Amino acid sequence: MTTSNVSVLPARRLYKLSRSSSSVARVVRQILRSEWSLLKKFPDPPPGGERRRQARHRLRLPVYLQRVSLRGLTVAPIEEPVPLLALTENISESGLGLSHDFPLPDDLLMVLFDVGEVEPLALLLETCWTAVQAPFDHRSGGMILGVCRLKD
Question: From CA 142, how far away is CA 91, in angstroms rounded?
Fold first, then answer.
């Protein structure tokens, strides 16, 4: 049985946001590498079906969502009684698709990936859209604003 590193993160710790596209690309590659041993290869989307600039990778991974406030490059988690859980649908270097049971509490969220690192990898996400498929079945997509790293 594995234990989650997310639960040991103090909610009041501050994070520094890196908006560097190379940092985002590196973290996305780390997330994908950690799961590729479990993923099967999926066929490419049909020609003309993809509108995005970067290729999306199918990724079905549970993640924690944390409401945050952003001041400059400082990301401060907003304390929640229970962490919100979602499932990733896909990821690219610029965006993330999520599936979740509940309406998202905010447009600005820190997405925590517990992928076996010492501390979870964290991306700052600005949600762009949400669609309700059925009760307790929501889909959302958002733009990755950067990588969140714990401040020293």
Answer: 10
Q: Where are the alpha helices (DSSP H) in 37-76?
A: none
Bridge partners (DSSP) of residue 75 are: 15, 70
- Report the C-alpha gap between 142 and 98 in whole angstroms: 8
Residue from 24, 10, 17, 104 nearest 63 by CA: 104
Q: How far is CA 57 from CA 12, 18, 31, 99, 113, in A?
A: 32, 22, 11, 15, 15
Q: Give me 16's structure tokens.
A: 């520094």
Q: Which residues contact 49 (CB under 8 A, 6 or more apart)?
A: none
Of the candidates 22, 15, 11, the residue with the CA atom closest to the CA atom of residue 74: 15
Q: What is the pLDDT along the chain (152 residues), one digit of tens a residue?
A: 344 545 444 456 899 999 999 999 999 988 887 765 554 444 444 445 555 567 889 899 999 999 999 999 999 999 877 779 999 999 999 999 999 999 998 999 999 998 876 788 999 999 999 999 999 999 999 999 999 999 87
